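queue> pop job 88
queue> type: inverse folding (structure -> sequence)
queue> payload:
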């Protein structure tokens, strides 16, 4: 009997969700170029924007509020982390060109024969992810804004789940991390710098379809101390130059004249 994993998105839009993010995004947030938007969250430790030339985000000190600023027209992703959990939002600035959803949905239907998708006010997508080709087609389609995570219900069979795990492991190994499934959850272990852990979370999102409950067992390395300035040794005192006065030789006296004879 195939192993089945169900990912249901019954989440409040403004909370960092209790499970790890994966395609599609958790929500799409519109912004205007040159304007700021404040967004209140239940909890947030840090955020990171994929492309800061499109939009920027910062956590206001002492609050759980984000300051989002649109920079130029386009789309980018925002990763949010809180209490061992993360989510990913799409930030859409202005009116970027529409995405090609229909052809990607058609490809996904061919690769995943039981896929059912509805549009409109009550969007939803259900599918059985049987193999690598179905997973790849869903990844392409779910990278668009056609659906958000809470609108999906996916069932994974073992070959597709193993293929997804292999992709995640390949991305995490260079960062010194390992991953394996424990039940329906993905356990990530190892020791990494804070920068590499951020990279690992991006990789988990980009390589996964549907929600993947994350068990975070990563130990963060302590920041390396700042390099000490080399000791130049004792200071060498330089004596000021000695001024020497050069005296002109005394004038020569004229020879005395002899008297007489």
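queue> result:
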């Amino acid at each position: 009997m195939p192993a089945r994993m169900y990912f249901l998105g019954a989440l409040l839009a403004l909370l960092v969700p209790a499970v790890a993010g994966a395609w599609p995004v958790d929500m799409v947030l519109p912004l205007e170029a040159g304007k700021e938007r404040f967004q209140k969250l239940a909890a947030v430790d840090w955020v990171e924007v994929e492309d800061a030339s499109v939009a920027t985000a910062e956590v206001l000190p002492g609050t759980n509020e984000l300051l989002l600023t649109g920079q130029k027209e386009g789309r980018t992703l925002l990763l949010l982390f809180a209490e061992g959990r993360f989510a990913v939002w799409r930030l859409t600035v202005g009116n970027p060109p529409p995405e090609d959803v229909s052809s990607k949905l058609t490809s996904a239907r061919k690769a995943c024969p039981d896929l059912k998708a509805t549009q409109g006010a009550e969007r939803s997508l259900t599918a059985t992810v049987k193999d690598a080709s179905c997973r790849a087609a869903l990844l392409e389609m779910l990278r668009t804004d056609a659906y958000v995570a809470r609108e999906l219900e996916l069932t994974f069979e073992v070959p597709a789940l193993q293929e997804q795990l292999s992709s995640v492991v390949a991305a995490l190994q260079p960062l010194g991390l390992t991953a394996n499934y424990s039940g329906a959850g993905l356990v990530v272990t190892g020791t990494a710098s804070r920068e590499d852990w951020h990279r690992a979370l991006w990789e988990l999102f980009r390589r996964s379809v549907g929600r993947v409950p994350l068990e975070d067992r990563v130990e963060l390395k302590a920041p390396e101390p700042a390099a000490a300035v080399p000791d130049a040794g004792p200071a060498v005192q330089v004596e000021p130059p000695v001024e020497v006065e050069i005296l002109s030789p005394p004038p020569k006296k004229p020879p005395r004249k002899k008297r007489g004879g």
